[in-house]
Design a protein that fits this description.
By secondary structure, this protein is mainly α. The protein is built from 5 helices and no strands. The longest helix has 34 residues. The two termini are 24 Å apart.
C-alpha cells in the first residue's frame, strides 16, 4: 500500500493542496505504523495501548475519507447531476466507512479513482 494513493484521493476530492483536509502521506503512514505496532503486540502488555492508538488513528483516517466522499457527492450532484456516479460514490463510501482494516480501505480508494476517472470528476 503506497501512501500517495490516500493523499491523492483526498486532494482530488477536495481539489486542495497537500496538508489540507487531511491530505498528507504521513497520515496514512502513521496508520500503517500503528497497525504494525498493534499486530506485533498481541499477547503482550502493550497490546491494549497499541490497539487504542491504532483504533483512534483508523477512525481519524476514515473520517477524512468520509468527508472527502461527502464533498465528491456534493460536487457530483451539483456539477454532473449523474445518478450513476452518485450511486457509485455512495457504494464506495459505504464500503470504505464500513471497512475494518487499512488494506480494504486502500482498495476502495484505488477503486474510487477508476470511478472518478470514468466520470471526469
Amino acid at each position: 500500500m503506497d501512501n500517495t494513493t490516500y493523499e491523492f484521493f483526498i486532494r482530488r476530492a477536495w481539489e486542495c493542496d497537500r496538508f489540507e483536509k487531511g491530505a498528507n502521506t504521513d497520515t496514512w503512514e502513521s496508520l500503517l505504523y500503528k497497525k504494525y505496532n498493534f499486530d506485533n503486540s498481541i499477547g503482550t502488555a502493550s497490546e491494549t495501548k497499541n490497539k487504542a492508538e491504532y483504533d483512534k488513528k483508523f477512525a481519524e483516517v476514515k473520517q477524512y475519507i468520509d468527508n472527502a466522499y461527502n464533498n465528491l457527492l456534493y460536487r457530483a450532484t451539483k456539477i454532473n447531476n449523474n445518478d450513476d456516479l452518485v450511486d457509485a460514490l455512495l457504494d464506495l463510501k459505504s464500503r470504505a466507512i464500513n471497512s475494518d482494516n487499512p488494506a480494504d480501505l486502500y482498495q476502495f480508494l484505488k477503486d474510487s479513482f477508476e470511478t472518478l476517472n470514468n466520470h471526469n470528476l
